[in-house]
Amino acid sequence: MHRKRFVLGLGSVLLVAPLWAQAPAVKVLAFAQDTLKNDFRKAQLEEVRSEVLKQPGWKFIYSDAQGQTSLLIRQIEQFTAQKVDVLVLGTNDEQAVVPAVRQAHQAGIAVIVLDRGIKGQDYSSFINSDNIQIGAMGAEFLARELKGKGQVLLFEGLQAADVTQLRSKGFLDVMAKHPGIKVIKRTGNYLRKDALLEMDKLLAQGVRVDAIFAESDSMLSGVRVALQNHKVDPKGILMVGCDYTSEARDAIRQGTQTGSVLFPLGGKMSVDVARKLIAKETVAKHVVIPVKLITRDNVEQNQPIF
Do domains 7-129+265-289 and 131-263 have the same CATH topology? Predict the structure, then answer.
């Protein structure tokens, strides 16, 4: 990638070490993350950091866009100007970041798009799970448990993120096969606070549902708080989330959450791919990590992602 010159300073005399004496160039992996307010995104960054620290001669740097697309774009541009070796991207908008990502890719930086996809092909590798399958798994489970009848609340994540659109599509496509089930939608932006506020509004309006599918476990955490504030027992509602966090595992054990789709962080895979890219090895353009549904039947056999 970009060879760094090894320069020694001695008083007013500047000595440039010969090539044979140069230390190996440090490899810099930068993670441009959408936000660290989201539990999943924070854990994802920490997993990448942990894996990078295991690589001799590597350095890890990161940025937090605080959920602001404009800030995320500026941070990507800054990493490009710094000529990092690898850029891992966690975006909040599949379209807006494309020009900045293209610029990084064309500058010779290995770009790994993690979890949430972007438009176009100007990157080195895209790592994610099948988000349509995630939505479909949640819908199939709830439709079966409801025996094809009832009202279901779909809690969506960030509207500009491809994962939201794909999970919703998978969920709604399955539910369309069950005319006895009515689906209503709300947006929680993958944040417990936003989901709490939206659920609180629904309950204050007298809306009641038989089941909930939330596109992240963090949103279900907010939903449970709202339910308890309105004296509604969470055990009386079928609730499936996504990610499979420690909090979700505890809720499944206690019966206040019915299930969760295990959605791996992808941090370890990102660093594995980065290592291959730096070594000039062939890497798949699209790497898919399997998902699975966790319920009380298998909760003790599966470790949460964080």
Answer: yes
